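Appendix B, Record 12. Input sequence as logged:
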Amino acid sequence: MGELFNTNSEDLLRRRINPTSLRICQKIGWLFLRPILKFFIHYRFLSNCDIKDLQSPLILVSNHLSYLDPPILGTVLPFGSPVYPVYFITKDTLMTTPVLGGFLKVLGALRAWRGEGLKKSLEAPKEVLQNSCSIVFFPQGKRYPFEEFKLEQGRPGAAFLALETGKPILPAAILGLANFSWKNFFLRRYRVKVIIGQPFLLAEKLAQNYTPQNIEVGTQIIMREIQKLMQ
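Logged structural output:
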């Protein structure tokens, strides 16, 4: 599977992604967004690991309920955590929108390149991990308005990337944002809980050495780890 990625990651990172600037932007964003989110959605988090000891790079995987999920996951770690900067995958239509796309890129957004194949979609995420930065993946691939989470909803990108790079996965679950609306947000009707699980290496959870044929098994393992946190 190594032949899937044949780019010079350090050169691409310098040209397209600036971790130092992003770390500064996310620190500033953390100071503004965390108190805002705490006020409007009363969000709190529980952790099954010592989040102060987490180190980058990590592949942070979570269920996907709303547009608030990236900023929620982007502020759930302590200020100045070594895990930052954290990049995240964003749908193509948002990234190609004038002004908005540029703004999202400054905040760490990477284009999904949906329909272009895994090589194109995972090129930038692999660069991120190879350069000791972290990335957020939503294995469901899209938002689900209800807190509906099924193993068969999982897509292979996160598993493929974890097995290709050997980087640890950190599962998380977001609860309390079903049927999200901005009206209910500003009326402070949500009570959101974020649960952080234990980091793990996907290859160690597989019964055998991985092949392209058991990427599906790896995807189900990731989905199952998220599902455990939702129960």
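The beta strands are 44-47, 59-62, 86-90, 109-111, 134-137, 169-175, 193-196.
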